[in-house]
Every structure is written in structure tokens, then in C-alpha cells.
Design a protein that fits this description.
alpha+beta, C8orf32 fold, 21% strand
């Protein structure tokens, strides 16, 4: 979690549109055998095994229902990853790690938990439009926090996948969280309590998201 910013403008910076690689088209981000071999050579057997286990997790759960995929993914990463601040892990105030970087470190902060869950569920076939990376204010801690939300349709109350409260609950029952805004590869929305909110533009307006997706593209080459 990071210190809560009083206005949305501090977090949003206008940038060029995201490449079509992360548009509305459904994409998987599983790494090639060559990439796995490179990771094993550079980081060793233990780190390589994490990537292999991730690929196995996705392959094993492709045929599950969306509800099952949500619970399995949420549990998988909440159990596997250690929470740690960006300042300790990356020596930066705020850094959004790619799934590969998170698996290499086996740790991350709330954004990293959310990002790897998001891309894992996309790789499992969950439609992008059902998923949102959602910034909230964690009222108990008076800090900004990020969670992953899932909505079956525009009228449904989103389900919250979180690394603090590890039980998936409807947003209506997460009174400890105050929604601020949400985004995915398709756009960005001002968030309203229990509802999707009003679309306000492209997710490429968020600098950290643009930087993250740029690094992911290079990783997949």
C-alpha cells in the first residue's frame, strides 16, 4: 500500500494510447520454454520452478468455472507471495512489477498481487471486461490500496480479490474500502460504491500501467 493521494490527478498522467497488444483482445502471458530456460540460467532452479508451477496452475484450471478460477487464483497468490513494500523490494517509492518480476522475487505489494491475479485470470480465459484493477482507500489504515474486482455484468456488485482480507467478498460487504477509480486494458472508470462507475478514458493515462505493459512486451519477445 502507498500513502493515499488526495486527488486523482496526482495518480493520472496523460500518455500515448496503449499498444494493441493489451487492448480488448484476449491475450495470454505464459512465457515460452526459451524464456523459462533463460530464467533458470539467470536466477536458478527455485525461481524457474515458480514459473513452471504457474504454467501448470493455468493449464490445470482452464476448464474450471469463472467462480472457481477466481477463488483458485486468489488463494494461489495469497499463499505463494510475501507482501513487502516497494521501497524494500525495489528501492523505489512506487513500482508496478510484471508477473515475471513478481514470481522471480516471490513477493510484492498490493499492486503486484493485483496485477499478477489479473493477468493470470486473463490467461485462464476470464474476459477482460469482467476484471478491473481497482484503487481504493483502505479506511482502517488511511492509505491507498489496490484490489482486483470481478463483475459478471455491468449491473452486478463486483467481487473483491484482496491480499489483506483474503476471502472473496462482494464490494457491498467491504465497508473498509472506499473505491476511487478502476481500470484494465480497455479503459479507466471513476469508481462508485458497488457499481462500475463512469468511464473517463484510456488506461494508458496511468504512467505506471503504461510502463508495466511496455516491460511485459519486452519480456515476451
Amino acid at each position: 500500500m502507498n500513502r493515499f493521494f488526495p486527488t486523482l490527478l496526482i495518480l493520472i498522467i496523460s500518455f500515448a494510447l496503449l499498444a494493441e497488444w493489451l487492448s480488448a483482445t484476449q491475450n495470454t502471458i505464459l512465457y515460452s520454454e526459451k524464456k523459462l530456460a533463460d530464467v533458470k540460467e539467470q536466477y536458478g532452479e527455485e525461481v524457474s520452478e515458480r514459473l513452471v508451477n504457474w504454467k501448470k496452475f493455468i493449464a490445470t484450471n482452464l476448464d474450471k468455472s469463472e467462480t472457481e478460477k477466481l477463488h483458485l487464483t486468489n488463494d494461489f497468490f495469497n499463499q505463494q507471495l510475501l507482501w513487502i513494500t516497494d521501497s524494500k523490494l525495489w528501492k523505489q517509492k512506487d513500482y508496478w512489477a510484471t508477473p515475471l518480476e513478481t514470481l522471480i522475487k516471490s513477493a510484492g505489494d498490493c499492486e503486484d498481487f493485483t496485477i499478477i491475479k489479473y493477468f493470470t485470470l486473463i490467461s485462464l480465459g476470464v474476459p477482460i471486461e469482467h476484471l478491473k484493477l481497482t484503487y481504493v482507500k483502505a479506511l482502517k489504515y488511511n492509505q491507498a490500496h489496490m484490489v482486483l474486482t470481478y463483475s459478471k455484468n455491468k449491473r452486478s456488485v463486483p467481487l473483491v480479490l484482496d491480499n489483506i482480507n483474503k476471502k472473496i467478498l462482494p464490494a457491498s460487504k467491504r465497508t473498509d474500502l472506499k473505491p476511487v477509480y478502476s481500470f484494465n486494458g480497455e479503459g479507466m472508470w471513476i469508481q462508485k460504491q458497488q457499481k462500475l462507475g463512469k468511464r473517463v478514458g484510456s488506461s494508458s493515462r496511468i504512467r505506471l500501467w503504461t510502463d508495466l505493459t511496455s516491460r511485459m512486451k519486452k519480456e515476451l519477445l
